[in-house]
Amino acid sequence: MYRHIQVSPCTARIGAEISGVDLTAALGPEQVEEIRRALLQFGVIFFRDQPMGHEDHMRFGRCFGELIVHPGAPGIEGFPLIVAIHGDANSTYVAGEQWHSDLSCNAEPPMGSILYLHTVPPVGGDTLWADMYSAYEALPERMKAYLDGLTAQHDANHVYHALYHDYDKAYPRNDHPVVITHPESGRKALFFNPQYVSHFNGVSDAESRMLYDFLTAHCADARFQVRFRWRPHSVAFWDNRCTHHLAIWDYYPQTRSGFRVTLKGERPTF
């Protein structure tokens, strides 16, 4: 299937390491096409030994779409499209400690994200991704029927108000289907986000809470997961439409540092 890159699957369901490509240089159209195909096949793909600068990072991202500004995290100086991802001995929290997909609160949630880490702790600091195709397919048929047509509200306000205490600022809040059809693969996936979902629409508060708890536990099932152990100058590129991820903060007081760009997506559909 792949002639211009090498692809090594990490698990039977999700994740693959990509080699034979230099992300610090411009990519050829054949490489871009095969990287996109690998992303669609595996949900998240990983690259090693890629000492990217900011321009390299943005150039690579733009091979796959338009880059967007994060509505809740400020960009770094001179590069508003790049967000710093950093944890050290002075950190009181780190980004991504709860299972989530990025910015599902947006009217058009991101297509994907690309994270580059230049500095990692000697041990720890892994990231987990979970396959939401498999999470949907593992549901009983009665639950699939129940979720069909159901929507949930994805609200960023409680997340960023707690971080920044800027209670007068309004962050994105939007309703999305709980089960979506991926716009490129055509497969059904769960589109539920424990970090942003405030409630499910059209059901009672008690039913909404029970459903939230059930889906939170179900989507975190280890059968759907891949675990990536970072090394310096590693890159992860994930499809935000069909994966969840979780950053493990088990390396305090060591430093874990890098940068992320986010790719524009479209409104999810049933």
UniProtKB/TrEMBL annotation:
The keyword Repeat does not apply. GO terms for biological process: sulfur compound metabolic process. One of its GO terms (molecular function) is metal ion binding. Gene3D superfamilies: Clavaminate synthase-like. InterPro entries: AtsK-like, TauD-like_sf, TauD/TfdA-like. GO terms for cellular component: cytoplasm. Keywords: Dioxygenase, Iron, Metal-binding, Oxidoreductase. Belongs to the TfdA dioxygenase family. This is Taurine dioxygenase. The lineage of its organism: Bacteria, Pseudomonadati, Pseudomonadota, Gammaproteobacteria, Lysobacterales.
